[in-house]
Design brief:
single chain, alpha+beta, Thrombin, subunit H, 6-stranded antiparallel β-barrel, rod-shaped
């Protein structure tokens, strides 16, 4: 019986029969499990000086070069996908920052414009309180053609806003002109600096009256135009710096009284006419007109808010 194959055994009849194939495999599996349990027990009991440390170090030393080689080969490949993700993120950040910069540049470009508009509205409210008349706000949307040699502007308010010809037009600074033509949604304003414009005025504290004539140009006083003042009383000589306001027309058309016009810049005598004349620098900058107010009777029906004499909006 000793020379029989390990996987064979005698049956009851004395003949050989194969041994069950699963028996050795189960034995090896049980042995491996027991070995693992023994190693785990030794590792836990040994603490810092575990008996399996030597084996652990041996395995680490054996596989460390392999691990390093794999990292060296796969590292650049794996980094490519990360690089693409980083580039996409940077591209999005750059696009977002450029859009933000464009918005900020736009805000910066319009901040002065919006500030000026706010100041103009505040100034127009103050002007209504100062002169004591209701005003219809309007924007200058056009300038008269140069070939006509007239100084006119077009505003964006007309009969729908309660406007009609021969109404006084002012700005926050002072007198602008008068309405000469009106449509349903716009109006033409003749500026006081036009050569065909004549406005009655009073000078300084003396309240002496005279007539202001436009010269038809913006003059040589920098940003302002210029007017000539002819006094009715030729014995009166206005002083440089005296303020000039409107004298006022009958029924307030085309000019209401008390609107600031400008200041006396110089005085000269006309030998031919034996008269005293003064050059007036207007308060209004006619080269930068934007928001104006048209004087209307209080309670005028309008398609827009009206600034009342007390500065409130109706």
């Amino acid at each position: 019986m000793t020379d029989l194959m390990p996987r064979e055994r005698l049956n009851r009849r004395g003949s050989l029969e194969p041994r069950a194939p699963g028996t050795p495999r189960r034995s090896r599996a049980v042995s491996l499990v027991l070995a693992c349990l023994v190693l785990m027990t030794l590792d836990l009991v040994g603490g810092e000086s575990s008996p399996v440390d030597a084996a652990r170090r041996l395995v680490g030393e054996a596989y460390a070069p392999v691990e390093a080689g794999v990292d060296a080969v796969l590292g650049p490949v794996l980094a490519v996908s990360g690089w693409f993700r980083t580039q996409d993120s940077l591209t999005e950040d750059v696009a977002r920052l450029e859009a933000e910069n464009d918005r900020l540049r736009g805000d910066l470009a319009t901040v002065d414009y919006e500030r000026n508009r706010l100041e103009e509205y505040d100034g127009l409210t103050a002007a209504a309180e100062q002169i004591g008349y209701a005003l219809v706000p309007a924007r200058v949307i056009g300038i008269g053609p140069a070939q006509t040699f007239s100084r006119t502007v077009t505003i964006d308010a007309g009969t729908d806003a309660g406007l009609r010809p021969d109404l006084t037009v002012v700005s926050a600074a002072g007198l602008v002109g008068r309405v000469i033509r009106v449509t349903s949604s716009s109006a033409t304003v003749l500026l006081v600096i036009d050569a065909d414009s004549t406005v009655g005025g009073r000078v300084g504290s003396s309240m002496k009256i005279g007539f202001l004539h436009g010269r038809g140009d913006l003059g040589d006083f920098g940003r302002t135009g210029r007017l000539d003042l002819e006094l009715v009383d030729q014995t009166t000589v206005p002083a440089r710096g005296d303020a000039v306001v409107t004298w006022g027309s009958e029924d307030g058309a085309p000019y209401v009284s008390g609107v600031p016009v400008g200041t006396v810049r110089s005085v000269y005598s006309s030998v031919r006419d034996s008269t005293q004349r003064a050059v007036i620098a207007p308060y209004v900058d006619f080269g930068a007109l934007d928001l104006v107010g048209v004087v209307v009777p209080s309670g005028t029906a309008s398609d827009r808010a009206v600034v009342e004499p007390d500065g409130t909006l109706r």
